[in-house]
Amino acid sequence: MNAVEALLRRERTVVVAGLAVLALLAWIYIWRGAGMGMSALEMTQLALFPHAHADPMPEASMPPIDFAIVVAMWWVMMIAMMLPSAAPFVLLYGRVLRHATAREQLSTAYASSAFLAIGYLAVWLVFSVAAAGLQYLLQRAGLISAMMLWSKSAFLSAAVLIGAGAYQLSAFKRMCLKHCRGPAEFLTRHWRQGRVGAFTLGFRHGLWCVGCCWMLMVLLFVGGVMNLAWIALLALLVFAETVVTRSAMISRITGLALLTWGLVTLWV
User: Fold this and answer.
1) 41-51: per-residue pLDDT in tens?
2) With a threshold of 0.85, does the pTM exceed it?
3) What is the 3-state secondary structure (H, E, C) of the chain?
């Protein structure tokens, strides 16, 4: 057995290490500012009502950011936030494929796991393009700060918070969450062979995860797109909704809290 064969027989270890390294690199990129001209730490402030806070410097002094860099920032942020939640799905796929393939086809199993992850992340790339476009429009309208990337409008903050709270309590959220939390059932119902099949499977699962979490990501426009506290908190919430047994309870509690927060925002 050569070194390559030995590595391929440790497919689970390779996949775990690959996902961990990718997530770590994503977090480092975010910490360093993701091309926004400032470190994420400089754009991190704890504020329940950011619209009531003045920016540290005039927005006119902020240089314009290329749209491609903003898309990359959003995509890397989604990778950092969503990979931990997607890891059980990728690992389960690798386990099923490992048992279903012959010994000499282990390299195919390994490659297929990578294509599954690529398909999953491709969905979040599409989301990132849409989020970057929305960010551009909100900045042009003067509704979010060009420096802190948080809401400058009580009405925008309230609308996003109330919308996210209502979405957390919706039937569609529960349906999407069911698909995200049941990778075994999802694989059984939607199994596809080959690398193209793995990509398609990852893409379809990613669509359900976007459906589950997209409104939570929009909350970043309230607290700050590059606010490390908000990013970490939302990442923990998404992970808890995905892996915790009583995830429906978490969604309900979060939904009620967001609704209350949004209503209070209108009076601040």
Assistant:
1) 888 888 888 88
2) yes
3) CCHHHHHHCCHHHHHHHHHHHHHHHHHHHHHCCCCCCCCCCCCCCCCCCHHHCCCCCCHHHCCCCCHHHHHHHHHHHHHHHHHHHHHHHHHHHHHHHHHHCCHHHHHHHHHHHHHHHHHHHHHHHHHHHHHHHHHHHHHHCCCECCCCCCECCHHHHHHHHHHHHHHHCCHHHHHHHHHHHCHHHHHHHHCCCHHHHHHHHHHHHHHHHHHHHHHHHHCHHHHCCCCHHHHHHHHHHHHHHHHCCCHHHHHHHHHHHHHHHHHHHCCC
